[in-house]
Amino acid sequence: MGHRVSSWIVNRYGKWGALVSLLAVLAGLAAFGPRLTDVQQNDAASFLPSGAESTQVIETASQFADPDVVPAVVLFVREGGAQPADRQRLAAVKERLASVPGVSGDVVGPIPSADREAVQLVVPVRVDTDAGFEQLPDTVQALRDTARAGAGGAKVYVAGPLALAADQAKAFSGIDGILLVAAVSVVVVMLLLTYRSPILWIIPLFCGVLSVFAAQGVVYLLARYADLTVNGQSAGILSVLVLGAGIDYALLIVARYREELRNTEDRHEAMAHALHRAAPAVLASGSTVVVGLLCLLLAQMQATAGLGPVAAAGILVALATMLVLLPALLVVCGRWVFWPFVPRFGDPQPAEGGVWGRVGRRIARRPRTVWAVTTLVLAAFTVGLVQLDADGLTDAEQFTTEQPSIVAEEKLAEYFPGGAGTPVQVVADAAGIDRVAQALQDVQGIAPDSVTKPVVLGDVGYVEGTLEAAPDSRAAFDTIDRARDAMADVPGDPLVGGTTAINHDVQDASAADTRLIIPVVLLAVLLILGVLLRSVMAPIVLLVTVVLSFGAALGISALVFRHVLGFGGTDSSFPLYAFVFLVALGIDYNIFLMTRVREESLVHGTRRGALVGLAATGGVITSAGLVLAGTFAALGSLPIVFLAELGFAVALGVLLDTLVVRSVLVTALTLDLGRWMWWPSALFRTDGGHATSTGHAVTHHVADAAHPAEPVTGHGSPEHRAGGDRRAGRGGRARGTGAVAGRAVSTVRRRVPRRARGLGPGAALRLRPGRPARGGESRPTGGRPCRPAATDDRRR
């Protein structure tokens, strides 16, 4: 962000315009947020690829059956066999079930089991598309209560697609509110620990929550008027992603602002300079996430393709909020919001003596050993990937808790063929439908006596049969493959569909999406890093570290899923979702670090710059990582295995990126590679510069044996201002030197040490003989420190 733009946002008068205008826009968008559930599409067709065979069957079969009518199987079980009065009871129950609100058409049955211990009734229920799936739990409960009232002591279960959809709707019910409350709770705790202020945390949190509601409003408008596909899953991820990423950006901006408040007397100028320095990293980070998410548009799966623009729109809203609204609020409030640790003008920068400064110095002793050992450890964790079962989840494995529909399905499978209630559907040309029916009967895995009599409407015929295996099993998928192979030899262009075929097509499409999108995301991120860091070597190194971190996170997750949490596997789309979020978000922390390292390297040289960058950004990046990990971990509060697994894997990966990859691996590699990290840019040839004898200018040189970069063992302040004064920072060059202005000058105008105040305008330029200024700051030649004259903080 240019200095003029940042100054306009936060100057004494412009801040009010930015504050009022953006608040009005965000509030207007947030008003549409509650309507997001009205445009969600949670039916099976909205998840499927448009060209899938099962999708075509859904469209064609709608001629024979209303696609909004979903069957429920009401199962009665009486161990020991039926009683004489059961026939009359079932007739009465059948009549009462037909009168339950939502039931459409005739109730089919009773259909007895072979041993006469169980009887099923198939109840067709119309799903009100306007009311959505939220009504289904009440409808299923009404069916259950009605059946139990007339069961005469028999056990009653409700199974079938309607019951499963009802449990899914109940699991997703209130997902936005639950996730937002859980994520906000985590964020509040982390902000309090980070800032140790009872006031400051309120401003980033307010901006974060407002950005969530505004993002929901934007997504609603896109779904309503731009035909964007939104479902409960993507809506839940949207809330977590926007809040976590937004707070990350806020932490970086607030940390840089606090630095500048110690260096600059006027708070407006301090924020302008903080935005000028922090905004490029924030924009690059957000752009990386947005581009990575938009790569999902290449997916065959409509749900996956829809998630891309949904989440990208949320990130853009978060960027706008944190780059405009947050700075305006902070300068309006003034320094007091940092109470009780208010940064005063002239206070020393504490970074080098902190934890990350000490970590950097330890790594600097043997950087090659550090990165080699770290790489081996992360590589060892990737071995756990052999335990990752991404072939999809059965209905029972979709939930973290026991669900009534799953219990009912298991009981139904004890007495009837496994596919009862979820038939295999076949459509074909009317002229060949009889041959299609015969071919379906001959398919291994289809109950021969279950194939229905063909129905013809116009030039299209329809037939269905029942699977012998459970409809969500591997055996059922194999049966679908055999049925499609058999239909390939039958004239009439038959197509095989149904619930099992839908799930099978979803798995195949998800696997194809993973193979396509992962390389595209890697290439996109590589190009963005190349433009940002102006290097070829650094982007490759950073991308390799993030991919290694992703492999380690997935390997550990796979072991935890199987041996600790007892999950049966992962959804087929899990590897792709985890990859996009971990790579796009994980590279953020490398961007935050390496932009600062490059900035400092222009002055100190690469090896010294790596330590300065780590010391200066270590605390804020760690806090940001903990916040983002905590918000994604909130997905574990839902009873949906896919979201719980995604939340765990992303949270773990973010922690690895924050605490290991960024702080240890990247720093060690930068120290070991030195100026080669910036190959083939100009910085590779010069490797920074050195202060001249005046102590406030920098000259560049070609890095060679005679002119090495500043050694990493130096003790200069990590807060050396690579920013320069306002005159130089506008794009000019420092007079009398070859240094790039804005990166080459440590100014007296912005940074006057506490001991130099009150000693006259030239005091800060008189250096002690033989002793360089600390971090580029000039020191007076002597005299007691004088306290600055009292100033009106309202003017700061």
Tell me the layout of helices and strands:
Blueprint: H1 3-10, H2 14-30, H3 44-47, H4 53-61, E1 69-77, H5 86-98, E2 108-112, E3 118-126, H6 136-149, E4 155-159, H7 161-172, H8 175-195, H9 202-225, H10 232-263, H11 267-294, H12 302-333, H13 355-365, H14 367-381, H15 404-415, E5 424-429, H16 433-441, E6 455-457, E7 460-465, H17 474-487, E8 495-498, H18 499-533, H19 537-563, H20 574-604, H21 606-633, H22 641-673, H23 682-686, E9 689-691, E10 698-700, H24 726-729
Helix pairs in contact: 1-2, 1-11, 2-9, 2-12, 5-6, 6-7, 8-10, 8-21, 9-10, 9-12, 10-11, 10-12, 10-21, 11-12, 11-18, 11-20, 13-21, 13-22, 14-19, 14-22, 18-19, 18-20, 19-20, 19-22, 20-21, 20-22, 21-22
Structure description:
The protein is an alpha+beta fold and 796 residues long. The chain is built from 24 helices and 10 strands. The chain has helices at 3-10, 14-30, 44-47, 53-61, 86-98, 136-149, 161-172, 175-195, 202-225, 232-263, 267-294, 302-333, 355-365, 367-381, 404-415, 433-441, 474-487, 499-533, 537-563, 574-604, 606-633, 641-673, 682-686, 726-729; strands at 69-77, 108-112, 118-126, 155-159, 424-429, 455-457, 460-465, 495-498, 689-691, 698-700. Strands 2-3-1-4 form a 4-stranded antiparallel β-sheet. The radius of gyration is 32 Å and the shape is elongated. Residues 690-796 have low confidence and may be disordered.
